[in-house]
């Protein structure tokens, strides 16, 4: 019989790629993780891991078992939610991670309303890709992120959609009206760091306009991006709620923002209450 607790260890290894990183996510020692994985291989009766130095990859049997592990995890989440609903749990704490403008737009108003119902939010400021990792690792209950960052291990609830605007230095010749992105082909650019999904949006939008942005400065903090642009360091493309700017002419890139929860947990009474308040 396969121990479902060991499936959680295998999922963490698949998510993080090394025994050390998986151990950190699970708050275990690397030795304990290695022992759990060895025991799981014995239970499964198949080799699950390929070891290459410090990194570990999954065998076909390991990848198949991870797929089943996702299903088992979702059912366990659903079972816990059902039990909590049976107990009519209506008070407690829910962990939420969101990027700064989403905290302003939806999390802070929801926090005030939920507090009156004895539901407390524990809020973490995290970019969309970081909140997804926190949700996968079980460190939070709800991640507010971009729609395309989610996986089939999550259930998504749409919150809002916002366009990207062009951010220009004071006195720029294009200030005051809609801007065609191709007009910015010769400008220096301020963008988010590699790995941030918003950088992909900017690079794709520029490519569709026929050029590659000349990136001079990077930051994941939109206040810093706004300050750099104001200082004449370049131009930027940013979500409207993060930084005020000039509209893009024609069809602007969009950020679709969702609340994501681990599949199966959406029926938990506390999480359901938080999702309802965030959406309202």
TrEMBL record:
Belongs to the LysR transcriptional regulatory family. GO terms for molecular function: DNA binding; DNA-binding transcription factor activity. Transmembrane segments: none annotated. It holds the Pfam family HTH_1. Residues 2-59 form the HTH lysR-type domain. Keywords: DNA-binding, Transcription, Transcription regulation. This is DNA-binding transcriptional regulator, LysR family. One of its GO terms (cellular component) is protein-DNA complex. It comes from Lentzea flaviverrucosa. It comes from the Bacteria.
């Amino acid at each position: 019989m396969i121990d479902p607790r060991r499936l959680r260890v295998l999922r963490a290894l698949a998510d993080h790629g090394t025994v050390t990183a998986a151990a950190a996510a699970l708050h275990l020692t690397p030795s304990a993780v290695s022992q759990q994985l060895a025991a799981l291989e014995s239970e499964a009766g198949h080799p699950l891991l390929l070891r290459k130095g410090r990194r570990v990859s999954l065998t076909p049997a390991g990848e198949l078992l991870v797929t089943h592990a996702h299903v088992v995890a979702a059912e366990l989440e659903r079972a816990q939610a059902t039990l909590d609903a049976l107990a009519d749990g209506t008070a407690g704490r829910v962990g939420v991670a969101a990027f700064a403008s989403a905290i302003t737009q939806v999390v802070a108003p929801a926090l005030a309303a939920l507090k009156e119902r004895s539901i407390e939010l524990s809020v973490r400021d995290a970019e969309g890709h970081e909140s997804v990792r926190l949700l996968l690792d079980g460190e939070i209950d709800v991640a507010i992120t971009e729609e395309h960052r989610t996986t089939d291990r999550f259930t998504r609830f749409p919150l809002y959609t916002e366009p990207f605007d062009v951010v220009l230095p004071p006195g720029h010749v294009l200030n005051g009206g809609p801007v065609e992105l191709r007009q910015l082909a010769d400008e220096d650019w301020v963008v988010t760091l590699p790995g941030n999904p918003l950088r992909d949006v900017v690079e794709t939008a520029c490519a569709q306009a026929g050029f590659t942005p000349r990136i001079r400065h990077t930051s994941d903090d939109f206040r810093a991006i706004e300050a750099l642009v104001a200082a004449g360091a370049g131009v930027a493309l940013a979500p409207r709620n993060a930084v005020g700017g000039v509209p893009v002419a024609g069809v602007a890139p969009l950020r679709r923002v969702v609340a994501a929860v681990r599949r199966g947990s959406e029926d938990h009474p506390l999480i359901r209450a938080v999702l309802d308040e965030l959406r309202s």
